[in-house]
Amino acid sequence: MKILLTGASGQLGQELQPLLAGFGEVTTVDRQAGTGNSANTLQQDLSDLNRFEILLNRMRPDLVVNAAAYTAVDAAEKDPAPAFRLNADLPGCLARWTQRNDCFLFHYSTDYVFDGAKGESYQEDDETGPGNVYGESKLAGELAIAASNCRHIILRTSWVYSAHGSNFVLSMLRLARERAALSIVNDQTGCPTWARNLASVSAEMIQQLLARKSETNRDGLYHYCDNTVTTWHDFACSIFTNARDLGLLETIPAITAVNSSEFPQVATRPVFSVLDTSAIKKVFGIEPAGLKESLLTCLEELQENE
Q1: Would you name the residues annotated as active-site residues?
Q2: Residue 267: which of 142, 116, 156, 151 has the closest Cα?
């Protein structure tokens, strides 16, 4: 089986590579050179769709896993074009190619397609309403895939973290080493999701689809996030406590819970973006992982690397 993985250098891409290798020959493509663990690693500007389609025609993959994304949420407000190019145009290009060539597309989206006003967990068929350009661009990518009629899975997720890349866990550890006191937002609620859990869930879904365990068509849109509902403030407290116990921090900074209004940002963030995972549980039998065990394992990995 030939597999093409985009976004190989990202948090999710790095976790996906070893798992996808179990299904066949993996070729990774990313805008940065030397970022893939695969023997077949290509450097390419993913926003150049003409060149990318040439690559697809040359490689002719059986499965495309699109983990590439433009995630600079505030920058997208000032310059939407790069966000839409990578988050909407690229998925649309992949979807049209996979539809024409009997290929399967696995794509990732975000809780930011919702406005956060519902006040309870979002199901897949709830009305979308992005509150920022990033969310609009990711929703446009979802719609382009659906419109193509290609075989696909779209997996929405939230608050992704890992032991590498750029994420909340690493930012909090850095700030805790630099400052004696921190103010952290306590009025935004979501579900932190370890990138390795998200990759493992993806591999399980792919495995089941390949095995054709059911004659029922299971293509479409699903939600996956780890199962702990929390705020940024409470998540940070968990990070600091575990990091101190592991010796990653000498002391925990003084923490003040504040409203997001005290940290004005260019892009609006959803206040409540918990994703309902009952569909993925019903269709694929997948149970979301817990935050406590996942965060501890992630921090232990950081400890080993230091």
Answers
A1: 134
A2: 116
